[in-house]
Amino acid sequence: MTGRLEDKVAIVTGGASGIGRAICQRFAHEGAKVAVADRNIAGAKETLTLMNATPDNGMMVDVSISDAFQVERMVESVVTQFGRLDILINGAAILIRTPPLVDVDEVLWDLTMETNVKGVFLCCKYAIPAMINNGGGSIVNISSQSGLRGVGYSVPYAVSKAGVIHLTTVAAAQYTSQGVRVNCIAPGAVDTPQMRGSTASAEVFNDRNQGHPMGRVGSADEIANLVLWLASDEASYVSGSSYSIDGGAMASAT
Amino acid sequence: MDKLIDIANRAVADYGFRQAVLYGAGDIASKWALSEEESVLLTGQVLVELKALPIPVQPDDIPAQQARVAEVIKGLFAS
Hints:
heterodimer, A: 254 residues, alpha/beta, seven-stranded parallel sheet, two-stranded parallel sheet, 46% helix, B: mainly alpha
């Protein structure tokens, strides 16, 4: 099926790689006009190429999402280029591994919170008025299974992703009545450059696959499928919800 | 110099932190309160070194890579 996002305008933060890139490609395939927002300019350009984007249906925005001025300018530039804003995907995040809580450096806490929580807040803050101006829209925040359980590899990342889930709930409570649906997904392990880069070796990566209930981690395309549905009008009665997408890993956890 | 080496050591050992440096060097410089000279080196030659690292750096190779990048940084300050 194509055309599920025909004439919709979307901003995808973190669109330069991994899950964000897969979302950009899927959205473009479904007829959306997509702004690939990232600080990784080379990666964002690659995403536009993979989307077969033209100036009529794709653009790139170099943005630091923890900077209010840049985020405001991003939304303005997208509305100027494409005439409206219907969809915001908050996919940009950083994952810095840390020791247990007592030994976490304050600077790593601040860095993570500024990108993963403040960044989502700012993007919502400036996107929501633009959506309301054209009758509503859909926001999908990318959280993580780390935000649902006590993972050990990064205290700030886990807490930030829990924050994203609750930000989703609060934003939905405040803006659903004005036509803006706000939802969240919490992926488990997904085969992305970030995951491979954070995995010590091919052997460790294979072990992760073999320890998974499905015998493999997820693909970015599988995550994009759920995001597509939430962003589209097919999910018109869905707001304030968070969806786990982990191939049964949480259900199988002992 | 010690702050730059600290940043580089973390970036060698952790791919996520490396990404934060590669695409947000200005933020990192600010958070670590780098001097102007250190900031210029971070956004210049140090980033070049970090971009060239394998993904990921294998755990057994981390000490050697950290030592190598630290030597590059010391050389930059000496020159």
